[in-house]
Structures are given as structure tokens and as C-alpha cells.
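The data are quoted verbatim here:
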Amino acid sequence: MIYIIATIIVIGILVYVHELGHFLAARRMGVRVEIFSLGFGPKIFGIVRGETEYRISAIPLGGYVKLYGEHPETLPSIIEKERAFAFKKTWQKALIVVAGPLANFIFAFVAFWAILTLVGKTYTPAKIGEILPDSPAERAGLQPGDIILAIDNKQVKSFEDLLLEIRKYEKPKDFLLRIKRGENVFEVSVTPQMVEGVNIFGKKTQIPLLGFKAVPELVHERMDPFSAVYHAGKKVYEFTALTIIAIYKLFTGDLPFSTLGGPLSIGKFAGDSAKLGIIAFISFMALLSINLGLINLLPLPMLDGGHLVIFAIEAIKGSPLSLRTQELIFKIGLILIIVLSVAVFYNDILKLLSGWKLH
């Protein structure tokens, strides 16, 4: 049950945030919003406020905002051109479209800022808890209790920072560690053992193994609201960059398509994060919000990025694309979205059959 509830909360909030961005920008640009719907398909419940109908629809896997004069086939019947999306200036239409993904990034930033301010940055200290026998760390003379201050002259504060630096390399190299033992600070060179593992994108590769484990401790470092602004922005930037790299690797084939997940994957991770507590759950929503924002900016028909490409063409061309061309583009986009949806759902089914537990 927790997986179902967590999935509804995650999708509901992120879809609401995304569509709210479109909604507010449209209203600001003087475009009439006809429908604001959470979910697709048949209407379950609706209420009219002002000139907009707010709906809950049957398929809770997305949502939409229907704008007056948005679809090409409705243009001949447009009466109020000043309230119609299609008759707005190109830059106004672009702002309305980009406002959805932008709202997702803002949500992620606010979520990270709230966590850093109220709870703080949580990390594992860069302190050795256990040395594995006959390991590079043992041969280098490292001991439990040693604190690692830097690797290759780059300061590290957490065990996570240390792992990120080590995992950057897929070929053998020596690491220079600056160690604090008691009151003494010294440097030691460690030659790692290369073992088979997976990188952050799930691809099998060779990774360096030094042969020690962290202490089972967590440090909570609370931040003042102003410092949290910088660190929240840094988190959004880092996860955005990581997602862009992942998308690039998908298109180049370096990242297998099987790593993509659909609604069941979202439900799995939403439920797992909810079990870990409210902080983990909000962090997951922030990460997913960044993913949602970036995916919608891809230059594919039907997505926000596809609309932006069309607007760019209009700006260069000096006039809108023909209705026939627009209809063809969106039909192609619809086919692509359906194919992609089927593919990620297929991946989800395979993962379930391979042993996923949803309970």
C-alpha cells in the first residue's frame, strides 16, 4: 500500500507543479486557460472557477493544461484572438511552454533548500572504519580510525566525496591520500586493485578498489538559509548535469535502454524512499522533478522542447508553420511518445519478473 500511496503523491505533486508553471505563465501572458487537469483520459471530477475548469482525470500518469487557441484545428473558430495562445508573440508562447520545466527546477531547488535549512547536509565522514585483509589499504599501512583529508591534493569532507573522486578513473593509477592519525598528518600512496563493478549509470566497468570501509556514522550539518541557497543551487546543477550526461549516453548507446523505467519504476523508488523517511522521500521527488523538467525540454514533438523548436523555426522563418505541417509534427510526436511509453513499461515488467518486490 505504501508504494501506491507514495506513487500517487509523487506523480500528483510533480505534475501539479509542472502544469502550474504553464498555467501561471499563460495567465500572465493573457491567454485563457480552459482546462487544468491532473491526469489524462475521462474526467472523474471537475469544478469551474472563473474561465477555467479544474479536473481530476482517470489516468493518474500525467496532466495537462488546455489553452484557448492552442491546437491548430481550432484556429478557424477563434473569436477572441487577443486571448488565444496561437496569436501571441513567439517569445510569449515560448515563455508559457518553458514555464512548466522551469517550475520543476524551482521545486527541486526549494526542496533541497528546505532540507538543508531544516535538517542539514547529511554525509558519512571520510573516516576509515574497517580495513579489508590483504587489500591495497592494508599494504599501504592504513588503519581503522584514520581520517582522510584529501585525495590527490583535493580536499574531501565526506566518504561520498572520496568515492566520487576514486570512481572517476577506470584505468589503474596511484592515489595520494592525506591522512590524519591522532595529531599526526601525513601522506601515503595507495595502488588500487581494479575490479569489475558498475559506474553511476549502471554500466559494467573496471573500478578502483582501495580496500577499506567507512565508519557507520552520519554527520548532520545544518546550514543557515543564505548558505543553503548556494548549496541547493549546486545540488540542482550537479543533478541536472548528471541527467544530461545520462541522456547523452542513452542516445550514444553507452547506457543501455533497459535502464529506463516507467511508472512502475517510479512507484518502486517512491515507495523505497518513503520507507526511509520524509527527507529521503522529498529528496527523491526533487531528483525526479529535475528529470521531468529535463525530459520535457528534449527537442521532440509533443514535449515542451519540441514546441520550443517550432517557435524557433517560426522566429527564423518570420511566420507560423502551416497547419498541415504542425498536425504532421504532432502526429509523429504522438507516435514517438506511445512507442517510448510502451518500451519503458516493458522494461518495468521485465524488472518485476526479475525479482522486484513491491510491498
In short: The chain has nine helices and twelve strands. The chain has a mean pLDDT of 83. Residues 2-119+243-353 form one domain.
